[in-house]
Amino acid sequence: MVAAGSVQSGGTNFSFSKASRREEDFQSHGISLICEILFPKIGLQAILQHMQHPNSKWTFNQVILLSHGSTAALDLQKHLQVLREKYTSIGYKLHENQEKAEVVIGESSVGHELAKISDSKVLRRLAQNREAARKSRLRKKAYVQQLETSRVKLNQLEQELDRLRQAGCHAGVSSRVDQRHPGVAAFDMEYSRWVEEQNQLLCKLRTALMGNVADTDLHMIVDNGITHYDDLFRLKSNAVKVDVFHIVSGMWKTPAERCFMWMGGFRPSDLLKIILPQLEPLSEQQTLAICSLQQSSQQAEDALSQGMEALQQNLAEILSTASIVASNVANYMGQMAMAMGKLGTLENFVLQADNLRQQTLHQLNRILTTRQGARGLLAIGDYFSRLRALSSLWVARPRE
Fold it and tell me: How many CB atoms lie within 10 A of CB 378?
């Protein structure tokens, strides 16, 4: 459909709005030209008014016939033919421009719709990516929480195993804790507390050595470490008097520690071999003093070991010759009383071994400088901590 417009020709304007009105507009304009050319005296307005009158029968062709045969009429017909062609050309051009405009508008609308569709897809994809990232973060958070919960449960199981082990729950021994002597149960609890305090002391020593604190402050920490071992020997002394077998068997220790036990504790000579590399560099005097201490400790250990072997041999002989025949009940009871007396000697051996361990630590502390003593205590503590960790891994190992 052609849009409405206007055309100016020879000073006279005529308008058209649709294709159906082109011929009427052209005739009106043609009549106006004819009247201006052929009837100047009558007047254009008079003729037009007469033609527009309801009873008028004048038409465009009648006006043309009025001037038929005249030269002016011929010229007018030529002029009207040119005007008709020009008018038709202008109409077609307007129609083509409108169709092009409609095509452009249509293409623009389609492009706009495609852009909307593309934008909606991008927005939907971005929303999906955000949702996937959120779910991934939630899964990661849940996984970390699960790992943390598993770690806490593992620590609780390890602590429970240590507590049961220290309480005497092992193969070949009754698992009923209430059968133990109250003094033994108290020792197990005190030893667990001692281990926790030992770990705290090791952390202080390590921090002090790394921070290069003053020797006076470091000396105080080292003295606290030696005093802490003195407390352990005091606890063991009380427990030996209650149940020496509990201390000698090492049920208050972890399985890995029990493998290296000697008479209810560590061998002083072996401990010196372990920490000696951590004490270097040593002066010549320090080296000689440590070697002498190691030899004396080894000799004392050998003497105690020989006494323990002799005690075991005597107990074996006494128990092997005891008879429970009814006629020899008195003899049997006498032999068992003798064996009980030998066990009192076992208590003395354990107490002497603890005294040797305690004296070795004090003598070593006097030989070393403050920083060497701190490194020595740290090496001893780390050694036993690794043994306890090894035991925990062994207990928690997968079994087929």
Answer: 22
Residue 49 amino acid letter = Q
pLDDT over 90 for what percent of the chain? 31
- In a 3-state reduction of DSSP, which class is residue 276? helix
* Chain segment 234-291, per-residue pLDDT in tens: 999 999 988 889 999 888 999 889 998 999 999 999 889 888 888 888 899 999 999 9
Residues 286-342: pLDDT tens digits?
999 999 999 999 999 999 999 999 988 888 888 877 555 545 667 777 777 888 888
Which residue has tokens 């040797």?
356
pTM, entire model: 0.54
**Residue 110: both structure tokens together:** 């389609």
Distance between CA atoms of residues 383 and 87, nearest Å: 113
Q: What is 110-146 written as a DSSP string?
A: HHHHHHHHHHHHHHHHHHHHHHHHHHHHHHHHHHHHH
* Neighbour tally for 49: CB within 10 Å: 11
Contact partners, residue 17, CB within 8 Å, separation at least 6: 2, 3, 4, 5
H or E stretch at 281: none
Contact 94, 5 (CB under 8 A): yes
H helices, E strands: number in the chain? 12, 2
Nearest to 35 by CA among 9, 67, 70: 67
Question: Per residue, what are the HEC states of 233-265?
Answer: HHHHHHHHHHCHHHHHHCCCCCHHHHHCCCCCC
Q: Are 239 and 357 in contact (CB under 8 A)?
A: no
Q: Are 350 and 170 in contact (CB under 8 A)?
A: no
